Fold this sequence. Notes:
This protein has 281 residues and is mostly helical. It contains 15 helices and no strands.
Amino acid sequence: xxxxxxxxxxxxxxxxxxxxxxxxxxxxxxxxxxxxxxxxxxxxxxxxxxxxxxxxxxxxxxxxxxxxxxxxxxxxxxxxxxxxxxxxxxxxxxxxxxxxxxxxxxxxxxxxxxxxxxxxxxxxxxxxxxxxxxxxxxxxxxxxxxxxxxxxxxxxxxxxxxxxxxxxxxxxxxxxxxxxxxxxxxxxxxxxxxxxxxxxxxxxxxxxxxxxxxxxxxxxxxxxxxxxxxxxxxxxxxxxxxxxxxxxxxxxxxxxxxxxxxxxxxxxxxxxxxxxxxxxx
Length: 281
């Protein structure tokens, strides 16, 4: 494996896969102020596999669906978030075939963090308005792990094992070994894909949430901590650092809010499991 400094130099020329067309189209559409079920259905039509997964989700027990046969009806049933989750999870599985990561655990954690971001946004007293990109930032916060896994192969498997065996946070082992970490790499990928700057920066900063005064990064950082603390993670036996204390205050939250946040998080996890089942089926 290349040394840390050599790898950093190669990052700008890493063979990042092109953003899946359906992801690009959906991201652009969701940036609009108003989105119709018909518009979302047109995007779904780009990929028959994704369309079938959205139909499956609409007919799942979670959504109490039965007899939903059209994509437009399915979109109305599962909503924008459900469509986005299935599109991202399935498209990125195709783009990055995991070598050393458990696909189900990885996306369950990602979906749970995204759902917890929604909970935090609803409760945060210092947010004047929801941040549209925050949910996607939660969903994609660890995408850099998929890039490193794909790029380094067995070398990244060794880094994952080192973090587990030594009980150290993964991003610290990555920084010590590579000179960078999955958060920075994920942010770079989203920049290459021309995703919104707020989204890319939130992913890049989710382990350093006070670096650029990015509220979305703070939401993801705290949601990630809460999910890891309650064993909704993808790295068994790894060490997870505590949340940066100032983040609670920045968002207008208190650790005394944690029991209610956790209750809402577990309610959101049921939806995450339904989405994962539809995407992976």
